[in-house]
Amino acid sequence: MIRLGGFSGGLATVKKDGKYGYINTKGNFVVNDENGNRIEISGKFDEAYSFTEDLAVVKKDGKYGYINTKGEQVIEFKFDNAYSFTEDLAVVKKDGKYGYINTKGEQVIECKFDYAYSFKEGLATVKNNYSYSYFTINTKGNFVVNDENGNRIEISGKFDEAYSFTEDLAVVKKDGKYGYINTKGEQVIEFKFDEAYSFTEDLAIVKKDGKYGYINTKGEQIIECEFDEVGYFIEGLAAVKKDGKWGYINIKGEWVIECKFGYAHDFKKGLTEVMKDGQWVVINTKGNFIVFDEDNNQIEVIKEVSDKSGNVFLLSKSDDKFGLLDANYNVLIKNKLYGEFEVVQRMNENTFLIKMAEKEFFIDSNGDFK
């Protein structure tokens, strides 16, 4: 213990193991009670903290316990760490895990968490290292989650994790596996998944044997666990990754857009961004590229076409009218034609020979026949 300065008002600041406190001229710790009154703690303690609910955390011989305002030990020195009481419960650490004791020293919530915080209004936040999420428990040690209306629901039973309800089902973890319970706390889908997620549009993402798939609210495997990564169904499509590439499937598990992208986002209003050849591009739900003209109008890229000289162009479409782009998505022929066409030959910068309905025409960049 290091004294950091001289005595002032009969007290001196001390530091030990990165923690600060006060001692008096006798060398005893001095702490405050809940009313702010100073209390001298006599006895050979390594650390001493302020009183809450008439109990103070103290450390002796490397272990933490609790004393009363008379300096008497009331809770055994057996914890690796201990914290002040709030709402008649205190966080304690034992064998590397955190739990809760009451003011009698009884273990009311076992030490099983990697992180645990004090109770406030009957609820406390806890976390384990194997999960990215924080969870809420009540004073019984049961998880508390929200239903879809924001109402709190207590989940009784020995679960490792519990998440909020969607579509009247909640993901819970037990004995290392995930399953689902209803709002009565009854198991409705077996604990057999390595990972499981909330339901959206009557489907939930699950992981089994290292691969992802989808189940329905009855627990039936609707889409087999065969993907490396998956997303939620948005606008009827889900982004999925297989063999290192992303594509999209529908709720039947059918391929709508083949896996050919480096990364893929969810659809919004029929469009999404995907990474193709190291660049972000926009596609529609058909998988066709979308570009925007100078007036920010959408132009759909239908397919590649080439003339007899081997020049490559892109057939485009907007408002059911067709046109032509170059390989860099610059407009060559405005979208004014009422049907698909072939490019026979580019005659010059502004004139093309095209074939449409088995007939050949000359057309300019404005989409007008010549």
Give keywords.
eight-stranded antiparallel beta sheet, 370 residues, single chain, 57% strand, mainly beta, WG_beta_rep, WG beta repeat domain-containing protein
Account of the 3D structure:
The chain is mainly beta. Among the domains are: 1-79, no CATH class; 288-370, no CATH class. The strands form eleven sheets. Strands 31-32-33-34-35-36-37-38 form an eight-stranded antiparallel β-sheet, with no helix packed on it. It starts with a strand and ends in a 6-residue tail after the last strand. This is WG beta repeat domain-containing protein. InterPro entries: WG_beta_rep (IPR032774).
- What is the overall number of helices? 0
Radius of gyration based on Cα positions: 34 Å
What structural category do the secondary elements indicate? mainly beta
Tally of extended strands? 41
Strand share of the residues?
A: over 45%
Biggest beta sheet summary: 8 strands, antiparallel
Uncertain spans, ≥5 residues at pLDDT below 50?
none
With strands numbered from the N-terminus, the spatial order across the biggest sheet is 31-32-33-34-35-36-37-38
Q: What is the straight-line distance between the termini?
A: 96 Å
**What is the share of helical residues?**
under 10%
- Write down the overall mean pLDDT: 89
Shape: elongated
InterPro entries: WG_beta_rep
Protein name: WG beta repeat domain-containing protein
Pfam family, one: WG_beta_rep
